[in-house]
């Protein structure tokens, strides 16, 4: 496993980070989730990403239990705040001071830790002044409940504004967590250059495009039983944008590229996002321990320019580059 600095900070994280978005506390049993965490640790993964909204807190609880007994200083734990949690009352979402201060304490309790390494704004809150949000984050850091702050799926302008306020308040905004993959490159035109200028890294989710880049979804074929595409708890909604015959046909053309390199298609997809210098880590999820072990092997893989060109030619125009997608997909108001 290789490790990268997170933004301009001195914090190193494992370039393969384990995330428990749809699986822990939702899709798979706790014993299987714990086995996946153990497999991550065995693979040299030290960084774990979660959020309070995942399974309405259950994912944090499962992760806390799975990591119990590990040396805390040897781990980097990231969690997030924004989406509705608890009974979903009027103040149970967003980035108000009230919700942030209450949410960090609840997350720490579930995670069984005194602090998180990075506390992230899970989306931009259009209903709360940014100054209020950043002051609350600053107080969380000063209270020792988080070392750094991050954001997720913010536009370049939002990252710039948040970074300026963080600097003014004497805290470090070190990361953005966007979706990024061979198929979804919307951050490249604006978010990445702005972040690189400011010393902010990307910690990217869905590097395998919710499983599409494994090649298991084939054009004209039935969806595999038990796959994310058939999961009505949330997985099916996130993957459907890629489930068209044109995209799936193009993805099949990646198979010989991966084979020539001695990689699985999933390993190729994870390695691809790590070629971007602004990416500090690729978040992988899993429902089985062997998936973790296999995908972790993408760490340290270097793809030559001619390989990157072959990938671009294989995928052609099914790749989405539109930088407006980040704002288009962002919530306009808080959910309840």
TrEMBL record:
Record InterPro entries: K_chnl_volt-dep_bsu_KCNAB-rel, NAD(P)_OxRdtase_dom_sf, NADP_OxRdtase_dom
Domain of life where this protein originates: Bacteria
Domain NADP-dependent oxidoreductase residues, every copy: 15-314
Keyword list, A-Z: NADP, Oxidoreductase
Keyword Plastid appears in the UniProt entry: no
Pfam families: Aldo_ket_red (PF00248)
Family the UniProt entry places it in: Belongs to the shaker potassium channel beta subunit family.
Protein name per Swiss-Prot or TrEMBL: Aldo/keto reductase family protein
């Amino acid at each position: 496993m290789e490790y990268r600095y997170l933004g301009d900070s001195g914090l190193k994280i494992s370039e393969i980070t384990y995330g428990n978005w749809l699986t822990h506390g939702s899709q798979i049993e706790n014993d299987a989730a714990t086995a996946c965490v153990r497999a991550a640790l065995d693979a040299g993964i030290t960084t774990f990403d979660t959020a309070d909204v995942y399974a309405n807190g259950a994912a944090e609880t499962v992760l806390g239990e799975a990591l119990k007994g590990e040396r805390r200083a040897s781990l980097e734990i990231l969690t997030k705040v924004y989406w509705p949690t608890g009974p979903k009352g009027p103040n149970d979402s967003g980035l108000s001071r009230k919700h942030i201060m209450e949410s960090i304490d609840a997350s720490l309790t579930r995670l069984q830790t005194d602090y998180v390494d990075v506390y992230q704004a899970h989306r931009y809150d259009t209903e709360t002044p940014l100054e209020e949000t950043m002051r609350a984050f600053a107080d969380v850091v000063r209270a020792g409940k988080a070392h750094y702050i991050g954001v997720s799926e913010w536009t370049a302008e939002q990252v710039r504004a948040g970074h300026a306020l963080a600097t003014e308040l004497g805290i470090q905004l070190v990361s953005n967590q966007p979706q990024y993959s061979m198929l979804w490159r919307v951050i490249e035109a604006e978010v990445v250059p702005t972040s690189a200028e400011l010393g902010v890294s990307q910690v990217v989710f869905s590097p395998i495009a919710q499983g599409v880049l494994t090649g298991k979804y084939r054009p004209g074929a039935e969806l595999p039983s038990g796959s994310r595409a058939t999961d009505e708890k949330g997985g099916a909604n996130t993957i459907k944008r890629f489930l068209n015959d044109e995209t799936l046909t193009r993805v099949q053309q990646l198979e010989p590229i991966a084979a020539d390199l001695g990689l699985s298609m999933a390993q190729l997809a994870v390695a691809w996002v790590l070629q971007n210098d602004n990416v500090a880590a690729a978040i992988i999820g899993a429902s089985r321990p062997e998936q973790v072990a296999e995908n972790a092997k993408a760490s340290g893989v270097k793809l030559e320019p001619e390989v990157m060109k072959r990938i671009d030619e294989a995928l052609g125009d099914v790749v989405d580059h539109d930088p407006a997608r980040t704002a288009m997909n962002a919530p306009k108001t808080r959910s309840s």
